[in-house]
Amino acid sequence: MPESFFIDAATNAVGTLMVDYLVKPIERRIRYLFGFHKIVQELHEQQNNLNREQTRIQEDIKEAKLNIQTQVIEKYVEDWLTDATNALNNVQNLEARIEENKRCFRWCPNWSWRYQLSKSMDEEILAIIKLVNNSKFERIGHRAELPGLEFFTSKGLVASKSSTTAFNKIMKALKDAEINKIGVWGMGGVGKTTLVKEVGNKVKGFGQPIMVVVSKIPDIGEIQNKIADGIHLKFEKTTKDERAKELWCRLKEGKFIIILDDLWNEWNDDEDFRKIGIPLVENGKGCKIILTTRRWTVCKSMECQVTIQIDVLDDDEAWALFKMNANLDENVSRNIIEEAEKIVKECNGLPVAIVTLGRSLKGTKTQKRWELARKKLESSRLMEIRNIEEEEKNAYMCIKMSYEYLKKEVTKRCFLLCALYPEDHSIDVEDLVRYAWALELCGKVDSVEEVRIQVLEAIDYLKDSCLLLKDTQWYIKLHDLVRDVALWIASEEESGFMIKSRLELLNESFEPCRAISLLNIEEKKLPGRLIPSNLEILLLKNCDVQGTCFQWMKELKVLSLTAGKHCPVGMISLYALTSLPKLRVWKILRTSHSLET
């Protein structure tokens, strides 16, 4: 019985092999010779199938590029489209050969040529069938990483007990379906923005987090634009209400985290969200809000379900951060360590103050210089700083001292020039180069390129000192607290570079003022009798300016005018230039065009 079973099995195996290796090849060869027209017909059927799948996938790609969850087409989809295009091109080549075969075969039959052509068509049919079978993709693409918004693990900052606890609380709250608003509050410079960026880097289950800096004067249009950029939405409408509807429709279809950074004033809660176009989470779709502010009352008025305070560093954390930035190691003498420890206490545990001051004192070798730094910081506690809360006063003094430790005057002036721009503004390095050239900050030089070299060197030094932040390759930013300090320094006459940055300040004495910057979004009117004879820089946006304003500005060297909807800057610009003998850099911007030199 077993012998019979093995004999039958062997017979079946041999039979199968004979069919596969003897019979089927013969059948194919006969088919190539006498089934030519049927192969041609099958080739055209498979060509139609592939065309249909190619069209379907191309339509899916178009839809995917409009979909908030799919922004980048997967490589395997692109590879499939390339293979499909190549296959369809091959079919066109075969069709040309088929037509040629028909003409030649009618007058002079060539069975060898027909055989080879049939074989080529059969191979192409199998390749197309494989492509069609492999065209059912689970997903076409994935969301792109947004350019210009980098979420990263912070370098140079020590994770504190407070920030670690806050991070865990935020992550837990984001997982709770009932929570849609989370408030993070604490002193300026304590690390709120850094923390929420870290959350954005680590959180899962949402689209790419969208971060919007709100600042003291919220601009609904600008907030809408930033959110639209974050979800790759191109507005079709122009009014704020219409754009709010477009945002709402897009956002309610996905799961998003929107980070509103640096809120200063209370919003009218859900009504303001609707004005912008932000739908809060409902049935698993919509937006969760994380807001940062210096004020607990803002979190309360916004009805945040979870409110988290970021506290300052404790003594051990502050010392560790200072040591790292001041480059103090075990080889430093005990006397210097003792002075450094006293300096750290003056920073009150505020990370931005510790980092900037530590960087400015790095390389200080003698105990005497450390002692002088400590005494200067201690004596500064007696200074009055208007409109600054007591808890932030030490931070101001630490950052001011970092400024005073800058060795070169051109570096100091570049730092103050950055304060001309609004909060969270991306500062064009080339603008700083032009302004430095116009003001002759680098002395008498032969070319703008020489100025550029010195300005870039100053910017690198300021970034190393943590007084400036890198934005993109050719842009920089100021931390909001550092900018406040820069404006405070520049508001004093002894700075030698007095800046006025708010219209109401012009009602005070402005005669010593050398720079006026009114680049905020609101429309305003410049006083008609503005005659600061020492003025060297005037930067205006959305400002109604009369030509007579420029009549007495004989020292003006830099002029930038950006016209608003109802501000006739363009009409008086050329007239204004004729009365400005020292003007070296000017820029006139309007909605449709600009003039610049």
Task: Describe, in plain words, how this protein is organized in 3D.
With 597 residues, the chain is α/β, with parallel strands linked by helices. The chain folds into four domains: 35-142; 161-309, 3-Layer(aba) Sandwich (Rossmann fold), CATH 3.40.50.300; 315-405, Helicase, Ruva Protein, domain 3 (Orthogonal Bundle), CATH 1.10.8; 498-596, no CATH class. It is built from 20 helices and 18 strands. The strands form five sheets. A six-stranded mixed β-sheet has the order 11-12-14-16-17-18, sandwiched between helices. The chain is elongated, with a radius of gyration of 35 Å. It starts with a helix and ends with a strand. Residues 1-7, 9-23, 144-157 and 591-595 have low confidence and may be disordered.
Oligomer: single chain
- From the spread of the alpha carbons, the general shape counts as elongated
What's the CATH architecture name of the largest domain?
3-Layer(aba) Sandwich
Number of domains: 4
CATH class of the largest domain: Alpha Beta
Structural class: alpha/beta
Spans with pLDDT under 50 lasting ≥5 residues? 1-7, 9-23, 144-157, 591-595
Q: In percent, how much strand structure appears in the residues?
A: 5-15%
Number of strands: 18
CATH superfamily of the largest domain: P-loop containing nucleotide triphosphate hydrolases
Average of per-residue pLDDT values: 78
Cα gyration radius (Å): 35 Å
In summary, what is this structure?
By secondary structure, the chain is of the alpha/beta class.
